[in-house]
Each structure stands twice: as C-alpha cells, then as structure tokens.
Write a structure and sequence with these properties.
The protein is built from five helices and no strands. It is mainly α and 140 residues long. It has one domain: Orthogonal Bundle (Helix Hairpins). The longest helix is centred in the last third of the chain and has 34 residues. It is flat, with a radius of gyration of 18 Å. 14% of the residues are buried. The model has no long low-confidence stretch (mean pLDDT 97). The structure holds adenosine-5'-triphosphate. Adenosine-5'-triphosphate (ATP) binds next to helix 4. Adenosine-5'-triphosphate binds next to helix 4. One of its GO terms (cellular component) is plasma membrane. It comes from Oceanotoga teriensis. One of its GO terms (molecular function) is kinase activity. Its main location: membrane.
C-alpha cells in the first residue's frame, strides 16, 4: 500500500513539473475544464460524455508524452542538432493530431447538442486536416 501511495506521490510530482513548465499544458487544462463544465449543462448521452472525457484526456496525455520526449532530447543532446529538431517537431505533431481529433469529437458532440448540427461536419474537419497534411508536406 505504501509503495502505491509513493507511486502516486511521484506521479503527482511529475504532473506539477509538467504544469509548472509547460504553458501549453496549462492552456489545455483550462480548455479541458471549460469543455467538461459546459458538457454538464448539455443533454448528452453516456457515450457522448465518455467521448468528451476522452477528448480532453488524450490531449493532456499527448502533451505529457511530448514533454517527456523534449526533456529526453535536451538531456542527451543540449546543443542545436538537426535530428533533435526533427524528433521534437514530430513529437509536437503527435500533440497536434490529438488536438485535431479532440476538435472533431467536440464538433460532432457539441455540434449536435447545441446547434443540432450533423455529425458529418466533424468528419469534414478530419478530411480537411488530412488533405492539408498531404498538400503541404513536401516530399524529399
Ligand atoms: N536542440 C535542438 N536542435 C534543433 N532544433 C531544435 C532544438 N531544440 C528545439 N528545436 C526546434 O525548436 C522547436 C521547439 O522546441 P522546444 O524544445 O523549444 O519546444 P517547445 O514546444 O517550445 O516546448 P517548451 O516550451 O516546453 O520548451 C522544435 O520543434 C525544433 O524544431
């Protein structure tokens, strides 16, 4: 039991490290709180609440992963390095994909609950995102 409590303590230290050093994490927590709070006032189904919770948490998870990767890279190679730059860029891309996924979930669920919008608009956003990746990624 003591070991479990210690693990929770270390995890809490990790969380406060991310919170104190990452501006994006703080913004994502603020937006997440707002989204979760608003969802309480909407007539959502259990599954929709689940997707909203998932959307909020997946961004925080990926931002934490991004922070870990950045810190590892800074530790093993503090100097400017082309490969380090690429790894950090890809790590940032992971967060972006999660964020767009969350927006898609939000548009589908909030769109229906607030504006009676078709879920297809969420899919259209996902299509636009994927098309942008294809169009703007220059092949080398
Ligand atoms: N050591 C490095 N070598 C090459 N490019 C780097 C290096 N460090 C950062 N970069 C470039 O700068 C971008 C931002 O990196 P940085 O580590 O500052 O992340 P950040 O998103 O600003 O996070 P944080 O504010 O938490 O440090 C990277 O995606 C990469 O393109």
């Amino acid at each position: 039991m003591k070991r479990f409590i210690n693990s929770v303590k270390y995890a809490a230290k990790g969380l406060s490290e991310i919170f104190n050093t990452q501006n994006n994490f703080r913004i994502q927590i603020f937006i997440g709180l707002l989204v979760l709070f608003i969802s309480l006032f909407l007539n959502l189904t259990g599954i929709e609440f689940l997707w909203i919770a998932f959307a909020v948490m997946i961004v925080l998870l990926m931002e934490s992963l991004n922070t870990v990767i950045e810190k590892i890279m800074d530790f093993i190679n503090p100097e400017y390095n082309h490969i380090v730059g690429k790894i950090k860029d890809i790590s940032a891309a992971i967060v972006l994909i999660a964020a767009v996924f969350s927006v898609v979930i939000g548009v589908i669920i909030f769109g229906r609950a607030i504006f009676n919008l078709s879920p297809k608009y969420g899919i259209i956003i996902a299509i636009i995102f994927l098309v942008i990746i294809v169009l703007f990624s220059k092949r080398r």
